[in-house]
Amino acid sequence: QVQLVESGGGLVPAGGSLRLSCAASGRRFSNYGVAWFRQAPGKERKFVAAISWSGGNTGYADSVKGRFTVSRDNAKNTVYLQMNSLKPEDTAVYYCAAALTGLMRGIYEYDYWGQGTQVTVSS
Fold first, then answer.
1. Beta-carbon count within 10 A of 22 CB
2. Which of 42, 70, 84, 87 qualifies as a FRET site for 62, CA 20 to 30 Å off?
3. Does the structure show a pLDDT above 90 at 72?
């Protein structure tokens, strides 16, 4: 089992930045690929970014490429999502998820999920 807890969400004006954290506990977190997803009210959960177990490979949705950066510190069992140049359309609940295979973009590929953290970008 892997337990995931997101933090770092909040209210930020358009153009601002936030850094989300996904802290893990349980089985060897360094074996897991991790992804970030987001879900806006009334919409489906969508892929945002993913990082391989080593951190050597990453992937991004087109809508965030160049603005968001995913990274990880396996010594701290934590994955980060640095979000810059935020837009109102980035407003959503952000979730991290983990799986033994990496860089997948489908929600059904992931075995473990956090509870989510709210990000609100004001215009």
1. 27
2. 42
3. yes
CB 7 within 8 A of CB 94: no
Least confident of 32-46, 63-77, 97-111: 97-111
- Segment 27-49 shows an average pLDDT of 94
Instruction: Quote the pLDDT of residue 51.
Output: 97
Query: Closest Cα to residue 86, out of 39, 123, 40, 32?
Result: 123
Q: How would you class 58 by CB atoms within 10 Å of its CB: exposed for 0-12, middle for 13-18, buried for 19 or more? A: middle
